[in-house]
Amino acid sequence: xxxxxxxxxxHKFREGQYxxxxxxxxxxxxxxxxxxxxxxxxxxxxxxxxxxxxEILDLGxxxxxxxxxxxxxxxxxxxxxxxxxxxxxxxxxPNVKFMVDNFEGS
Length: 106
Description:
Shape: globular
Helix content: 10-25%
Radius of gyration: 15 Å
Oligomer: single chain
Low-confidence stretches: none
Strand order of the largest sheet: 3-4-5
Largest sheet: 3 strands, parallel
C-alpha cells in the first residue's frame, strides 16, 4: 500500500516518518549509491573482522541488495533485512529474509 504525492510513491508504514519516496527511480538511486560505496571500498561489503557467525542483520535494508550480496559472500549465514518500506525483491536466497518494521522504535 503506497501513498502518491507529486507523482512519487511513498510507503504507508508509519506514514510520514521517512521523507524520501520509494518509487522505482528512488530504488534505482539507492542501488546506485550501494554500488558506488562498494566500489569506493575496493569491492568490500564490510570491514568487520567476521569469521564464524550465524546471523547478519541489515538495518535500513532498502532494496535489499546489500543483504543479498552479503549472503553471496557468506552463504552459511542467515540474513535479516529490516526496513520501513516493502521494496525488497519477492525472490531472495532461502537464507535471506526481509521484515517491514521501524528499527528506530515506536
